[in-house]
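Researcher: Structure for this, please.
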Amino acid sequence: MGINRINELFAAELKVVNLGLEEFATSVQREGADAVQVDWKPPAGGDQRIVSLLDRVESNPELQRDRANDEAVERLMKGKPTLVDIGIASDVVPGMHRTLVLHSGPPVSWERMAGPVRGAVIGGLIYEGLAGDAAEAEELAASGDIEYAPCHHHDAVGPMAGIMTAGMPVWIVKNETFGNAAYCTLNEGLGKVLRYGANSREVIERLKWMETVLAPILKAGLQLHGPIDMKNLIAQVLQMGDEGHNRNRAGTSLLIRELAPYLVMLDRDRSEVSEVLKFMHTNDHFFLNLTMPSCKAAIDAARDIEGSSMIVAMARNGTEFGIRVSGLGDLWFTGPASKVDGLYLPGFSEQDAARDVGDSVITETGGIGGFAMAAAPAIVKFVGGTPQDALNFTRRMYDITLRENDTYQIPALDFRGTPTGIDLFKIIETGVLPAINTGIAHKDPGVGMVGAGLVKPPVSCFHDAFQAYAERYGVQP
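Model: Predicted structure, token format:
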């Protein structure tokens, strides 16, 4: 460059584009010049092994990943989850039998189960009449006579410990577009409940009341009402301040509104009907056990699409966090369950907390929950942070998803669709991890809920899944 050009450069108004340390841009701005900070990171955080795997995949001329992902996310968004009935697990859940206990997350043995999951298993065995007390239930649980499996292996999902046993009533949600179904137990409420690992007499008595009073009355009311379009209800609740995972006040209210006119018509004792309505009214999380199977039913239609890198399941069992990828079949990729950064109930602290647990992250996988926190700024009173944090969480999730949802929309973002269809490749390329909000269970069996908060999944499970994807679809070195 000649001396004249250099002089022209320094005589012109200075405009700076800065990559890297933000302080450089700030210093220029302090001197009165224009500076734009570019938040750039090297792909895969500069991990050479992952970068080489990216190159292997991108070099495959036969792989049509974009087409496969378009199909996957299109199937997810075209799904129409519909509440059709309540049934008993042994009658409706595929493969369910008396000595099978379903749990949340990827597969885990009794020996490796976290405290709240063990506590809930003990409660489930007492509930089924397979054991008379906690000591007997614990002995049976470890005996080898009980079979354990993830809810996800049986078209089901379960919040927190996720325990489902043969005699439990379950919601039946059918995907009317594609014909598949998903199942989930009914929500017990917060605090000392089975899904948080509690198993005292009051917990079992509540579950028996839910089986003998709550479920039959709701089933009869639903039959009078007819099927309920869950996709429509979820779209409404996002306009009303819910995000569908840890804030469900609007959803529970809408469900009561749908069913109440039919419940009062039932030939049942009026005090029982009143008790059912009061139970739902005082349990803001009641709707959670409907958003979960709704998301499960919708996203299961996008499984097993050759070449797709869309994540179709995320789940945790208190020991491990696991994911499944559409183009990689039924394989789980796992990493250690994370600690939850949260708010605690009086008398509890981080020292009391179990690690991340539950299938409820299926809501984030389906495009709501933590991905829709901008729709529910009040959620921060439950999980921590600020309303601005809620907005930021949602905005960041657009960086790792394939589409903006055409039905689930966020008023605070000018009715922008929620970020939907988590792409494994985008997580690898950006280093951004899915945003998840969650409840916190006590680390010991039998105690229950101690708080709620925010959690980041382990990056290792995404790296392992990406390596498996590259080995299957990449050009071999």
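Researcher: Any notable elements?
Model: The two ends are 43 Å apart (CA to CA). The chain has a mean pLDDT of 93.
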